[in-house]
């Protein structure tokens, strides 16, 4: 069996290692450059590879193809493969049959990384032999090849879910859905929503789907679609006989006739959106029969995720917060919503079809100045130009932070929450967040 892998990054190389171990004839092809550390792994494992090109003769003879999530279906080589009816899978689909571990799959437009990390933290703290992967950390396929985990917590992007056929998690979570990556879905929101719901398409009556019952897109989907999985909703406003909710500042969870309650003041994560992430993760812990005392302890000592509302430093009584992971409007909405002091907001980058008007009421209420950090800021300026007193454009992070310091006063917050992708000025959102933190430390 010939396995061709498009993309020589984390998921590609992980799949290559698993494929080789399972006896496939493996070939890795990357249209760009393969990073040095990944090249070394391919060479040590005697796996054939190429970079800066896709040689069609070496690709179109595949029995199966694993495509990295970053490569769109519209790319010419993928079109040719599909025309020849060669199966094109995601790493998750390829790797899943090679493990009998319990899989917890987490998707959503926002909150999925925090929910994934928190779920993993809850299960690991309880002594479970559990792996963490998917969209974060070491690739799932690589772990299936090298480790013997009893369960996996996987963060799954819509792109990874687009490439599944038979994959099913025992427990699935949809944290929320808001418009994102619409450039990959023909600018049709419903295509993106359907893509997220692929997480439950193969689930049976023995499986579970945990979801945000306050979310409009999710609620609408359920009006015209069904899933076989047992439903476990969570909400900030409604209550359920089976599900999770907040009532009188207590998180209450009822699953399979078992109750769990915890005072929200004792949960380490702050903000309404994080209460939702905590409810989702705790629902998993309850399904996995983790002891209540362990759950309480883990929820109270969880450290949070880097680049997500991360407090960097307080300088001259101004708090600097790194929310570089906010790559869409919905994530920035949560960030602004949790601000309790006048805010200098650093925003901008590669716009994926954003509607900034959703932020209007929050900007009017909380934002005193906007610093645009992007190559093209026209849209942001058009929307908010008349709303705030100060609007400034900068082209690098040092200028953004220095300008923010100048515009802020004692008691203010400087918030980097870009609502956009980072690729115009930075390598990725981590690079953007790290540059912000460094610039703050240099003040």
Please describe what this structure looks like.
This protein is α/β, with parallel strands linked by helices. It is built from 17 helices and 20 strands. It has three domains: 2-89, Rossmann fold (3-Layer(aba) Sandwich), CATH 3.40.50; 95-301, Mur-like, catalytic domain (UDP-N-acetylmuramoyl-L-alanine:D-glutamate ligase); 310-441, Mur ligase, C-terminal domain (Protein-Tyrosine Phosphatase, Chain A, Alpha-Beta Complex). It has a nine-stranded mixed beta sheet with strand order 7-8-6-9-10-11-12-13-14, with helices on one face. β15 (310-315) and β16 form a beta hairpin. α6 (112-125) packs across α12 (292-301). The relative contact order is 0.09.
Q: What is the tally of beta strands?
A: 20
The named CATH superfamily of the largest domain:
Mur-like, catalytic domain
Radius of gyration: 22 Å
End-to-end CA span: 57 Å
CATH architecture of the largest domain: 3-Layer(aba) Sandwich
Mean pLDDT: 94
CATH class of the largest domain: Alpha Beta
Find the CATH topology of the largest domain.
UDP-N-acetylmuramoyl-L-alanine:D-glutamate ligase
Q: What's the helical proportion of residues? A: 25-40%
The number of helical elements comes to: 17
- Helix/strand class: alpha/beta
Q: How much of the polypeptide forms β-strand, as a percent range?
A: 15-25%
Domains, number = 3
What is the makeup of the main sheet? 9 strands, mixed
Poorly predicted ranges (pLDDT <50, ≥5 residues)?
Answer: none
Apparent shape: globular
Cross-sheet strand order for the largest sheet: 7-8-6-9-10-11-12-13-14
């Amino acid at each position: 069996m010939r396995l061709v892998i498009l993309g020589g990054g984390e998921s590609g190389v992980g799949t290559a290692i698993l494929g080789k171990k399972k006896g496939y004839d493996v070939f890795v092809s990357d249209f760009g450059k393969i990073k040095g550390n990944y090249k070394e792994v391919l060479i040590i494992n005697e796996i054939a590879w190429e970079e800066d090109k896709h040689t069609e003769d070496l690709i179109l003879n595949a029995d199966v193809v694993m495509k990295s999530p970053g490569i769109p279906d519209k790319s010419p080589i993928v079109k040719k493969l599909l025309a020849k009816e060669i199966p094109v899978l995601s790493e998750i689909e390829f790797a899943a049959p090679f493990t009998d571990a319990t899989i917890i799959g987490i998707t959503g437009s926002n909150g999925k990384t925090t929910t994934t990390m928190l779920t993993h933290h809850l299960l690991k703290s309880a002594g479970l032999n559990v792996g963490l992967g998917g969209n974060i950390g070491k690739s799932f396929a690589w772990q299936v090849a090298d480790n013997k985990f009893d369960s996996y917590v996987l963060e799954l992007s819509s792109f990874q879910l687009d490439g599944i056929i038979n994959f099913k998690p025992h427990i699935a979570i949809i944290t929320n859905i808001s418009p994102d990556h619409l450039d990959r879905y023909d600018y049709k929101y419903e295509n993106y929503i359907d893509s997220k719901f692929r997480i439950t398409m193969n689930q049976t009556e023995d499986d579970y789907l945990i979801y945000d019952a306050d979310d409009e897109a999710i609620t609408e989907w359920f009006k015209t679609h069904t899933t076989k999985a047992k439903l476990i909703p969570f909400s900030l406003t409604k209550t359920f006989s089976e599900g999770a909710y907040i009532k009188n500042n207590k998180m209450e969870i009822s699953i399979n006739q078992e109750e769990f309650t915890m005072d929200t003041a004792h949960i380490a994560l702050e903000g309404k959106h994080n209460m939702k992430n905590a409810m989702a993760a705790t629902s998993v812990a309850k399904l996995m029969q983790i002891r209540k005392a362990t759950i309480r302890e883990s929820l109270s000592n969880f450290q949070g995720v880097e680049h997500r509302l991360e407090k960097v430093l307080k300088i001259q009584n101004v708090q600097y917060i790194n929310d570089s992971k906010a790559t869409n409007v919905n994530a920035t909405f949560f960030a602004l919503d949790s601000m309790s002091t006048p805010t200098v907001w650093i925003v901008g980058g590669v716009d994926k079809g954003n509607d900034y008007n959703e932020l209007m009421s929050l900007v009017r209420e909380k934002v005193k100045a906007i610093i645009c950090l992007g190559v093209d800021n026209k849209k942001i300026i058009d929307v908010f130009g008349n709303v705030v007193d100060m609007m400034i454009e900068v082209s690098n992070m040092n200028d953004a932070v220095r300008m923010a310091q100048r515009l802020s006063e004692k008691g203010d917050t400087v918030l980097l929450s870009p609502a956009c992708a980072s690729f115009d000025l930075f390598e990725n959102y981590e690079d953007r967040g790290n540059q912000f933190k460094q610039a703050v430390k240099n003040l």
